[in-house]
Amino acid sequence: MKFTRTIAAGAAAAMMSGGAMAADIAVIAGSIEDGFFNLIKKGVDDATLVVEANGGSVNYLRTQNYDNFGPDLVQLINTAVSQNVDGIAIPIWVPDSQVPALQSAAEQGIVIMMYNSGAPHKDEVSGINYFGSDEYVAGVAGGEYMAMNGAKKIICHIQIPGAVNLETRCSGVADGAAKHGSEVIRLPLPANLDQNVTGTSEAIKAELLKDPSVDGVITLAAWASDAASVGIQQAGATGRVQLGTFDMSPAVLERISQGTQTMAIDQQPYLQGFLATSMLAAHLDFGTELPTDPVLTGPAIVDASNIESALVGVAKGAR
């Protein structure tokens, strides 16, 4: 974690640049089919109440799916620019596509706030801060946890090959597992199988049947752990194969409660949406600045030891 500038310096810079009152901002997010971003939206919606109370507005923009991810994200950036927004809060998943578009937006005076993914690209797009997890650190934590709990050969399922956050997660898992003598095998599946529980479960089952020495599966999204759970069961590997995942859902937490899933890695998406939206608007409206950059919202391991407190957040729609 680094401290890039003082509050006073940031506020002065904002005043010199003539920060606009009553900020109109766009928050760009992932697919409408991806339930993870419903948790992001809960945070965005709560922050929107504050933005609107100060006379501003928030437009939440999502891609239809992940089939044409890079170009679709550029289209959303261009849509936000055409709406004359003052700021954009956005993850960077496909740098080759997104970075040039965001650089162009910044050159037009639009303030960029980052969340969820792509922290290494923040300076390239003149981003003012990042709210989210360090994907590599989270991966290392997951890989270490699985290995320390006995998994020696772990499949890391990638639902959107090439997405920088997912590839980085798997790299972290591999390095974390290797610290304890365990091996990680990457399983990239076609992006058109994203959110497809049946197709994904069949692919994971096939891998488990092909290689009985696999004793761990870690997925990079909560829905994918649903698929992995089915695949493990259908392969007759329940009890032999540990299951871990990034992110949470009621089904994930239920499996942890029942002992059929080992753990989940929580990055607290509610906080990502809430902080990215509210802090971007506050920066534009009032010239406020956080001295902590990045602001990490994870990772945190949720397992049988702390499942009850996580369930409280789920009941309120924030975890």
Number of domains as seen in the coordinates? 2
Task: Sketch the major β-sheet.
Answer: 6 strands, parallel
At the fourth CATH level, what is the homologous superfamily of the largest domain?
A: Response regulator
Query: Average pLDDT, to the nearest integer?
Result: 92
Count of beta strands: 14
End-to-end Cα distance, whole Å, is: 25 Å
Strand content: 15-25%
**How many H/I helices?**
11
Gyration radius (Cα, Å) is 20 Å
Pattern of helices and strands? EHEHEHEHEEHEHEHEHEHEHEEEH
CATH architecture heading of the largest domain:
3-Layer(aba) Sandwich
Relative helix content? 40-55%
CATH topology of the largest domain, by name, is: Rossmann fold
* Gross geometry: elongated
CATH class of the largest domain: Alpha Beta
Structural class computed from helices and strand pairing: alpha/beta
Identify the strand order in the major beta sheet. 3-2-4-5-6-13
Give the low-pLDDT segments. 1-20
3D structure, described in words:
Mean pLDDT is 92; it is low at 1-20. Helix 2 packs parallel to helix 10. This protein has two domains: 2-133 and 268-298, 3-Layer(aba) Sandwich (Rossmann fold); 136-266, 3-Layer(aba) Sandwich (Rossmann fold), CATH 3.40.50.2300. Strands 3-2-4-5-6-13 form a six-stranded parallel β-sheet, sandwiched between helices. The chain has 319 residues and is α/β, with parallel strands linked by helices. The protein has eleven helices and 14 strands. The radius of gyration is 20 Å and the shape is elongated.
